[in-house]
Amino acid sequence: xxxxxxxxxxxxxxxxxxxxxxxxxxxxxxxxxxxxxxxxxxxxxxxxxxxxxxxxxxxxxxxxxxxxxxxxxxxxxxxxxxxxxxxxxxxxxxxxxxxxxxxxxxxxxxxxxxxxxxxxxxxxxxxxxxxxxxxxxxxxxxxxxxxxxxxxxxxxxxxxxxxxxxxxxxxxxxxxxxxxxxxxxxxxxxxxxxxxxxxxxxxxxxxxxxxxxxxxxxxxxxxxxxxxxxxxxxxxxxxxxxxxxxxxxxxxxxxxxxxxxxxxxxxxxxxxxxxxxxxxxxxxxxxxxxxxxxxxxxxxxxxxxxxxxxxxxxxxxxxxxxxxxxxxxxxxxxxxxxxxxxxxxxxxxxxxxxxxxxxxxxxxxxxxxxxxxxxxxxxxxxxxxxxxxxxxxxxxxxxxxxxxxxxxxxxxxxxxxx
Length: 418
Description:
Elements: E1 25-29, E2 36-41, E3 44-47, H1 48-53, H2 71-74, H3 78-92, H4 99-102, E4 106-108, E5 113-115, E6 123-126, H5 130-141, E7 157-159, E8 165-167, E9 172-173, E10 176-180, E11 187-191, E12 195-196, E13 199-205, H6 215-221, E14 222-230, E15 232-233, H7 234-240, E16 254-256, E17 261-262, H8 263-266, E18 270-271, E19 291-292, E20 295-301, E21 308-314, H9 322-330, E22 341-343, H10 358-361, E23 369-370, E24 376-377, E25 385-393, E26 398-409
Helix pairs in contact: 6-9
């Protein structure tokens, strides 16, 4: 698909994440405007609250954009999602008869503060990247037992904390927790020493369900995608995860990018999941290309220093798609809600430079990563700034997600010390 030209000149650049082909959804505020829904176009944001107030956007009998989140639109379902995208395209396309009406409602992105784009109902994180799972399993169990017996048959996941999901730019405080000493069996209560990032994509559920749904129904229910960093305290996790899995090690924070890239914008970039060693059970079988060709990267910048790209990979490396994860999530009858967030699991590729976590990049801390500045890292240090980026490449344009960033703050003083 070629670039769709817009009268917003910055949207026609091959370097922007936000051409007319994209039209991602976010929430913004300025010094003079309260937080409200907006659509990114080039280096501008289209004010959806003002557009609906003025009748330029008129989709339903009740207002959808009088609140600072996109859940109200999600609840309307795919027909209204499509109607909005078509209307936005008409308003912002080159030669639009409505340019004079829309132009005053554009806000420079440089003047805006971005907020959480949705109210997260529930958060589930998966462990669905084969290269990541193989790397981690090899470190802890050896190459012969790297993948647990169920891994090639089922998308493994755990229920996380929606309350800990934050928007890009939010500082991340190093957590305290119980750590097992390497010298003796008793744990100690200390700040995490092996704090890590996890490069992921997040799928946002746009349609509720109550009972099992098929992979195709799950795909239709996904509203859009965000970049996701599921910050992880590896040392806390090592002590607590047996036998029930992650708990406090994953509850510090999960950062997401501020722009929701719709499934419609990603349609031209669909690609298939990898070949299967075992045929999946009927409720998980691939029904077509369910992944997306999205280039992803991670940079790390120590305080006051330039950033180094420490990983580059692609979303197509996942073993299970978000639609398969969502379909599996529903098999028990578990109701899925509008605004549910599904983390893909860490996205790693087959080579060292494609590993989506420091746990893998430093091979459990045994092989320090050297940054362009000369600094080395095994895990994250205080004041490090992590930034995730991602985009799909079209013909002379790209569909991007902006950035997903966070800076590590030092742990607070012992909260339980008298």
